[in-house]
């Protein structure tokens, strides 16, 4: 399947959060866990600001992995994760039907762990004709090497790799879009590192004539 060359819009994509649970985050060695959580929270906030449908799925929440991480649930308080037993969201009828019910054929995926639940879902969705965008800095793997290999496999199969900040900027595209300006800017200021510092500086220090 060819990689997508058209830009994302708020009207054509949905967000799938796969196993964003503390028990799985404990095993992440591919990135700083706090940074990874911050990136995922920023992505969840982005979905909220732009009105994207969001599906969350969890596994083993009662016996090992725990619930959807509270920082993410706080951002999306009405989101009810779908519990499953299978590692692959696409092989769980309820979770797959929830994705289909969004009516969106472009799927943003964030999750844990890259080597299993993220890649299995991405590969299966691609096989079903979905355009898949893996938000790589909102996914974590057991090691840097295994995370990178999982990303390479998904990309080779046709997934597009992206980052949370690119998703936000791609959806906003024009800072004169007032309906999402304040929300998008607040996310960048809170999570965008030096870029966010620069936006805050421009707001506070550069006064119009």
Automatic annotation (TrEMBL):
It holds the Pfam family Isochorismatase. It comes from the Bacteria. Keywords: Hydrolase. Residues 13-165 form the Isochorismatase-like domain. InterPro entries: Hydrolase_YcaC-like, Isochorismatase-like_dom, Isochorismatase-like_sf. Coiled coil: none annotated. GO terms for molecular function: hydrolase activity. PANTHER family: HYDROLASE, HYDROLASE YCAC-RELATED. This is Hydrolase.
